[in-house]
Amino acid sequence: MKKKGKASKIACVGLLASALTFNNYSIMFDAKADTVSNSSANSQVVILTKDSTVDRTIEQFEDQNKDAALTDVQEKIENKEIQVDVTDSSKDTVFDEDTSIFADATEVEGNSQYQKVLKQELNDGNRVFLYGDVSAEEYKDILGLDKITVDNDSAGDLEFGSSDDEIKSNIAEDKNSKVKEDEFFKDTESKFTSHIIGYTLDDSKELQFIDISVNNFDGDGKSIPNSESMLMQEVMSTQSEILDAENEHLADEAENNKTSMIGVKKAHATNVRVKDTYNLVAKGYRLGLLVARMDTDYHLYKQNSDGNKKYDYFTLKPVTQVHSYKGIWAGSILTDIDVPSDSDHLDTWAPMGDRGGAKMSVSLGFPFNISAGMSFSESLVLDDRSSLAYDYARWQIKDSAIELNQNISGTTFNPVAGWASTGTYATVGLKVVGSFSNYITLTTKTKVTYDY
């Protein structure tokens, strides 16, 4: 396990070697020999490829791309905080500590040599990313992992990439119950997929698990294939955000150390936070240009002392923010939380009931004890579609001036839902949909599971 908080020594290695007869990529390395060094105080991005077009793509991004949405990444490159090198790797390679390795999922799948090397890098505490059309479940299968878990410093782990069959089996075994045939599993039959999945076994690192979907649209809002330049752009953007998260963590640690020296103590809370911030990211491109982004963090809370022997009580609080660029407008956010087990039930949610305004309160009473508020730059309309009968909490928020098609870019929406769970395996489905102008729609989906 590597040392904690080494934000200044993150490296990123993209593995992109083009096959001679196919329009895709392969990885060119075998045993470990030479070292990719990250001894500088900056973040290094090394893209290993035989494809000469990648070098030109990176140069265009550095020198010609004037996309305001990518200013932060470009400034990091210009200031040498992120150093980008494209190289033809004809020799065996050693990846230094705190390395992020990017590889094409289609090339790793079915290739035992690549899988062996990447799994070893995971065991060494490095980040391993697979990109392409890939889900968390496929990531786990391709790299031969039994589970993808995030440690929460508590009795139990949050799991990602669980298959429908695994969740159904866990529910049946733990709760002696069956699963409702609702959208929780129907959604998995859709064409939704992610495009960058990253994971590290080093639980001291920020963003231990990363899930990003990249969506490209034509001028009429129809989906078209992602381009190489978009994926390279996302490789660098992802590395930039990892660097930001690690530096923010270091700043928080420094502040906590400062306050602890003057005797400030945290108040005892009635709830236990069992999930650090987890970011679901969906990005929308129009004709290759970034025009929309939707970020969803979520927090899972377990009630500490409800006194009920049959149920444990949980609260899920997703926090979603939408942004739009280049003349595209953000129109609405839909958040959907589904309770799949027959033995569990939705208890309450907030906001409850249709409403409108520039401010909304979010509050759940005992045993959940959660409260928060939302403030918007303008008056918005909330459509509450939740159902106790079908055990789902569902809301859509949009601008009140529907006929004027107002832009809600920058809006943050953070509803909450509380449910009662039997056994020791708690799970709900979370789906968030952002609707934008020009028929652009971004979707993020995950199954939130907590085995305790």
Description:
With 452 residues, this protein is of the alpha+beta class. It is 20% helix and 41% strand. It is built from eight helices and 27 strands. It has helices at 52-63, 71-78, 105-108, 112-123, 136-142, 164-175, 183-186, 228-260, and strands at 11-15, 17-18, 25-26, 34-36, 43-48, 82-87, 93-95, 99-104, 127-134, 148-151, 157-160, 194-199, 209-217, 223-224, 271-273, 278-286, 289-303, 312-324, 330-338, 345-350, 355-364, 370-384, 392-399, 412-413, 416-421, 425-436, 441-451. The strands form four sheets. It has a 15-stranded mixed β-sheet that branches. The protein has an eight-stranded antiparallel β-sheet with strand order 10-11-27-26-19-23-22-21. Strand 13 (209-217) and strand 14 (223-224) form a beta hairpin. Helix 1 (52-63) packs across helix 8 (228-260). It is globular, with a radius of gyration of 22 Å. The chain starts with 10 loop residues before the first strand and ends with a strand. The relative contact order is 0.13. Residues 1-41 and 261-277 have low confidence and may be disordered.
Question: Which labels suit this protein?
Answer:
alpha+beta; 8 helices; 15-stranded mixed sheet; disordered N terminus; eight-stranded antiparallel sheet
